[in-house]
């Protein structure tokens, strides 16, 4: 059978996570170059563009347990094989749904998965930005057993050899959530700048991550502190002036963050400004005291 890697690539098609781990482990222990294949939206173009394919591919499409999403009293768990299309209409997860709806085209959303987004670790990836704001746990499995890490740890260290992402877990929403994105032509490009914002009415805080300015999704800590102190938590509302101040503080924090490489078409000043505008707009959208239609 011809595989996405080429005629000499061995294709494993496990039916369970255990079988996937076993195939991955065997290839790693044999010292062969092995890749996981989920929806293929990133991997297949990369293999086509590159020279020789990997020695082996472990295709995850038949692993049904990775395609499950579920809700408990306090958490939502999303399997690595869940697609953006699966998430886009999930009413229990408005922020995940909003981030998924703006990914690529219908075709990309039908194929692209949560596990693939983490595996690609694009610093501007829409899902990663949301997961950073949501303080998601990443669940991984290997022959050594299961472990969890957070988004920062995952981006810093990556999966260990022989390890795959099995799911992500986020807290059940306890307030409004939104995801805003500025980009080139939708369906063809990831975000230029994006912003995920979650209101946590139980812990009385606002969590906000911005991508497209720093080297990865960046939490705007000073703006979050201002929101924690100044939002009226008895009603979950805030005045418009606070949204503006939130955006200014977000932009100020981003100026001090380690920057993405300079892009002459979209200079850092523009991206920082855009991030501040998005953060203010997201704040205004989520805090009901601000009238809809008010300029942020
Ligand atoms: C035209 C186009 C438009 C796009 N637009 C956007 C966009 O707007 N926003 C955005 O964020 N992204 C966008 N993307 C990127 C892409 O769709 C996402 O990164 C997607 O989530 C990748 O998922 P996949 O299932 O297709 O992964 P694959 O291509 O199958 O794999 C991607 C990487 O992840 C690894 N991997 C797969 N599954 C796992 C797992 N379970 N554990 C560990 N590693 C794993 C693979 O080995 C590979 O390295 C776009 C891509 C294209 C081609």
Task: Kindly describe this structure.
This is Molybdopterin dehydrogenase. The protein has 296 residues and is an alpha+beta fold. It has three domains: 10-64, Uridine Diphospho-n-acetylenolpyruvylglucosamine Reductase, domain 2; 66-171, 2-Layer Sandwich (Uridine Diphospho-n-acetylenolpyruvylglucosamine Reductase, domain 3); 177-286, 2-Layer Sandwich (Enolase-like, domain 1). 36% of the residues lie in helices and 22% in strands. It has eleven helices and twelve strands. The chain has a five-stranded antiparallel β-sheet with strand order 4-5-8-6-7. Strands 9-10-11-12 form a four-stranded antiparallel β-sheet. A three-stranded parallel β-sheet has the order 1-3-2, with helices on one face. Helix 4 packs antiparallel against helix 7, helix 9 (221-230) runs antiparallel to helix 10 (240-255) and helix 10 runs antiparallel to helix 11. The longest helix has 19 residues, at 268-286. The protein starts with 9 loop residues before the first strand and ends in a 10-residue tail after the last helix. The model is unreliable at 292-296 (pLDDT under 50). The structure holds flavin-adenine dinucleotide. Flavin-adenine dinucleotide (FAD) binds at residues 35-43, 45, 60, 80, 103-104, 108, 111-113, 115-120, 122, 125-127, 159, 164-165, 188, 190.
